[in-house]
Sequence to fold (365 residues):
Amino acid sequence: MSSFPDFSEQGYQIQRILGKNSTSGRVTYLATHTTTKTPVVIKQFQFATVGATWSDYDAYQQEMQVLQQLHHPSIPRYLDSFETASGFCLVQEYKPASSLAEPYQWTPEEIKQIAVAILDVLVYLQSTYPPVIHRDIKPENILVERQQKLKVYLVDFGFARQGGGEVAVSSTVKGSLGFMAPEQLFNRQLTEASDLYSLGVTLICLLTQTRSTQVGDLIDSAYRINVKQLLPSLHPKFINWLQKMTAPDLTNRFNNAATALSALQSIDVVGNPKVGKRVQHGKLNSIAKVVGLGTLALVSLLGTISFISSISNSTDTHEHHEHHKIKRHDKEKNHRFDRKDHDADDRHDKDDDEHDDDDDDDDDD
Fold:
């Protein structure tokens, strides 16, 4: 027996759970329409869940009302809504995409594509009447299909607000810490520039591969992000664009999504020439060091060979000299022995002569 709710009377068969937020009492399911077999997303708000509040119910109602008025290819369409004994359900178009919260190493060029796509959605939202402020742009609420051309979707309009040029102050602060613009965090009036801050922080998280739970590590006490220090290899114009998107003072940001989009489209995202020069200079220094060390090693080796050769030659000369001395000494020694033998023979002959003379004298007698 399935543990999923039975939505067969409403025409849906649940396949699996896509996500769950216990604190707000919301569960998101992947389901199939029993007649058309079309995959859909069903968000169920379980008001009887521990922790669920009326503000969570308001978020459900707000999302349903806003989505019914929106028609954009990058916003999953509203399809249906119904009530059950366990809660309220919102049915949306299903997109086979993953959220940006899932670990993935996006290239700067791909991140620019994502930025352009979301800015296009924001241009649409800000052009509706009344304009819509999303108020919760973060990696978890952006879905991407990784195909030849990225397909990007903005989801979760539970915190969205509708208003004129400026959205009135809410009774409660809603949004995600680290991604909320300072004016949103301090419950001040929001403008069309408020969502730009959240998008800018999201893009920086992707570029630095920072998880949403660690976004606070990127922001200083004045709510500033030092993009140049974090991402020095980016093109200076892209760094300035990101810095302007995340300016704590909303008057220093782009006025709206259309202005931000226009500024971004002509910008190269990588290729900081200064960094390139530093890198090349560093490479040249490394090469010079290697060549210098190689030359030093070669000189040292040649010196060693020369030293060994000189020792060898010196040894050979010394041995030759010693051999010559020994040979000469032996020759002189032999010569002395020959002279001694010769002298001894002379003395022996002389003695023989004297002996013969004595014999002659005896004979005379």
